[in-house]
Design brief:
79 residues, mainly beta
């Protein structure tokens, strides 16, 4: 069995409210009970709708992008 590891999402506005796991689950931290969000298919990829209320911000994000930013190491950009 694979252990599920959770990390905060990379998007600045949402990092205190959402976490993503190495298994592709996304959970909300907005309440004391951590809840795994339902995913939907957008353009052939699994996606989730993230939302915070103050200030009101809504964003739909592909799950594989959230997982990649949380768990993959990226080289520094060359200029």
């Amino acid at each position: 069995m694979i252990n599920e590891i959770w990390k905060k999402v990379h998007i600045q506005e949402f990092k205190d409210f959402y976490e993503v796991s190495n298994l592709g689950n996304v959970r909300s931290l907005k309440t004391s009970k951590k809840r795994i969000l339902k995913q939907h298919i957008r353009c052939g990829y699994k996606a989730i709708a993230m939302e915070i209320c103050n200030p009101q911000i809504k964003k739909t994000q592909n799950v594989h992008i959230l997982v990649a930013y949380a768990f993959c190491k990226y080289p520094k950009k060359r200029h």
